[in-house]
Amino acid sequence: MVILMRQFLFLALAVFLLNVDVTAQSKLSSSNKKALKSYEEARAHSKRFRFEEAIESLKLAIRRDPGFIEAYMFSASMYKRLGNNTQAIILIEQGLVTNPGYPGLKKYYQLIGSTYFEVQDYKKAEGYLKAYLDSGLPLKDADKKQIELMIRKAQFAKEAIKKPVEFDPQPLNPAVNSFPIQYFPVLTIDENQIIFTARRGVMPGMDEDIYVSRKDSIGEWGSPKLISPDISRPGINEGACSISADGKVLVFTICKDRRGLGSCDLYISKKTGKHWSYPVNMKAPVNSSAWESQPALSADGRTIYFVSDRKGGIGKLDIWVSRQNENDEWSIPENLGPTINTQFDDITPSIHPNNLTLYFSSEGHPGFGGYDLFMSEKNDRTWESPRNMGYPLNDEDDQVSLFVTADGERGFFSKETEKNQEYESKLYTFEIPVEDRVKTSSIYLTGQVTDDKTNKPLGAKIKIYNLENSEQSYNVSSDSITGEYFVVLNEGGNYGLYATKIGYIYKEFNFDLKDPKHVLSRDTINIELSKINVGQIGTLKNVFFDFDKSDIKDESKPELDVFVNFLSDNDGVKVEIQGHTDNQGSDSYNNKLSTARAKSVYQYLVDKGIDESRLLYKGFGAKKPIADNNSEFGRSKNRRIEFIIR
Q1: Please, what sign has the CA dihedral across residues 514, 517, 523, 527?
Q2: Are the C-beta atoms of residues 464 and 490 closer than 8 Å to each other?
Q3: Can you name the residues that pair with 641 across neighbouring β-strands?
Q4: Looking at 139-143, 183-187, 618-622, which range is the least confident one?
Q5: If both were cysteines, with which of 146, 245, 349, 424 could 189 make a disulfide (CB 3.0 to 4.6 Å apart)?
């Protein structure tokens, strides 16, 4: 289910062997019978995957005929199969020097070019790969595209390696890195929990489980624990996972499960208090008969990005997105399109808490190796062209899976190393280079929702709207047992936050993060909700009017729609809409303006389906100030729309 992250570029040798049989004996450069016999022995060894024995036979062939160009190239390909590109280059260069004019050399240019690429000699790689395309040799269209991509990568890498980015990865402490293999780290918004997949053994197929590590009182990561016995179960491989910002929604991968629709499916579990629910298959349309894996949840857990090889994609593995509606139904997944997805594999998406920055790994965009890490910013619902995150964060090896904190300053990833011919993987963190930081950083608000009289924790709905475009940007619920909530706000926006629960007066807050005086920082806001009682007064804080006008401004609509939902959910409630002004102007003017504004709100509610018999409206002008009219701040408080329960 989960790949080891180290691969050779495009499996270049495998592609090469599909195009050119380096072991074929037709038109060989040697006529030495003993050399040809050794060459034939090497062919037999290679077919049985005995590459070291093949190399020994080829050494003998070269001793018997030092000009035997095919023996050099065949030996280089065997060293590549063993992962020894350095020795492969030595054999290639020996062959080139020994028989530089041999006309059959051009059929080896792909092997030569891909090997130079892997040792980061991009200039030579580009030259040989271009020469291979120009050689006139028959070439399948798919292989031609792959070579063209490798040329673009060589051109990119040749320049990018001259401008390295700052990159100093540090391993997380040994308490976390306690397994031979651990990968795909994700964090909660407060950075106090890290969740990842781990294997107790290095061999593929061994049981994969999801673990969580928590920070202690001094900020050190503690020993990882199974996230839940209902999630990490014996005999079942739980793979790549993602968690919502508040740590309450977990989506992860299970393969070859009898409940699945395809070879690998996505499963979801939700946390209430300290208990995770039994995971359920997300079913269609998110899952299909194809392969679905590597989920990435938005901060509120209501948008999911994932990888699939389903029909309708651009490459074999593409990144798709599905969104959850108000009825908790997931939409038909949409392909992210050709800006993100390529004809090659695009994998391991990670969406930043700002919901505007996507990190992913691709072998189809220009880079340094097989898979490189890229980032793309969303601009007016359109993804910008992905940007390679630079060298040496990306290098000739594969880089997959990156998680970036809300402030955009730190990244977490897994790094694979080879030890005693076995791979192991550890978790690392690093400071994101300034040029690769998100355009829009985020903060989070947290706190507890309670009953204002009993202090009992409440499970309330919490929604955030961008008041500039009236779009809902966040939709979560506080924990019904603890009352705890987390929400995310992006810098540079003006937001209305609304906490609602049936039977209670809703609470609203305004956060203007466009204000240059505002300090972008985490905050704790406890929300107390009052049960509905006759005579209670509420203020529509996010209802706005232009100066001297009663027309409702567009940015007022989120608040008014919340008010509509409040009245719809509590259908026995009757309210009086009350308009108020400051003391500027005559009494008659203020009475007229306040009445007109109250009527505008009344009419909005009626137009949205609220029965007129439940509504009254009245203007009070400047008669009921709640602040001092001698200051602009006080006057701004007095200009308001209120409602009173009747």
Answers
A1: negative
A2: no
A3: 579
A4: 139-143
A5: 245
Output b/e per residue, 533-570; b: 16+ Cβ within 10 A: eeeeebebebbebeeeebebeebbbbbbbbbbbbbeeb
- Same structural domain for residues 63 and 143? yes
How many whole angstroms separate alpha carbon 306 and alpha carbon 253?
A: 10
* Contacts of residue 481, Cβ cutoff 8 Å, sequence gap at least 6: 272, 273, 457, 459
Compute the mean pLDDT over every residue in the chain, rounded to the nearest whole number: 91
CA distances from 642 to 7, 60, 149, 576 (A): 64, 94, 63, 8
For residues 146 and 14, state if they share a domain. Answer: yes
Total-model pTM? 0.89
**Bond before 392 cis per omega within 30 degrees:** yes
Tokens linked to 540: 């529509």
pLDDT at 561: 94
Cis status of the peptide bond prior to 285, with omega within 30 of 0: yes
- Backbone phi and psi for residue 71, each to the nearest 5 degrees, phi listed first: -65, -40
Q: Quick check: 162 pLDDT over 70?
A: yes
As a whole number of angstroms, the distance between CA 38 and CA 224 comes to 54
Question: Following DSSP, what letter does each residue of 178-205 receive, concatenated?
Answer: -SSEEEEEEE-TTS-EEEEEEESSSSTT
What is the per-residue pLDDT for 205?
A: 54
Query: What's the token pair of residue 632?
Result: 């602009």
Q: Which of 200, 238, 220 is nearest to 429 (CA)?
A: 220
The answer to whether 476 touches 485, Cβ cutoff 8 Å, is yes
Over residues 449-496, the pLDDT tens digits come to 999 999 999 999 999 999 888 889 999 999 999 999 999 999 888 999
Read off the pLDDT of each residue in 361-379 and give the average, rounded to a whole number: 94
Give how far Cα 509 sits from Cα of 162, 233, 525, Å.
49, 43, 10
Residue 588 in domain: yes
The pLDDT value given to residue 11 = 38
| In a domain? residue 217 | yes
Please say whether the dihedral angle defined by the alpha carbons of residues 347, 359, 296 and 253, taken in this order, is positive or negative. positive
How many CA atoms lie within 13 Å of 21's alpha carbon, on the beta-carbon side? 9
Range(s) of the domain holding residue 72: 9-159
Cβ atoms within 10 A of the Cβ of 267, count? 23
Structure tokens belonging to residue 281: 């298959």
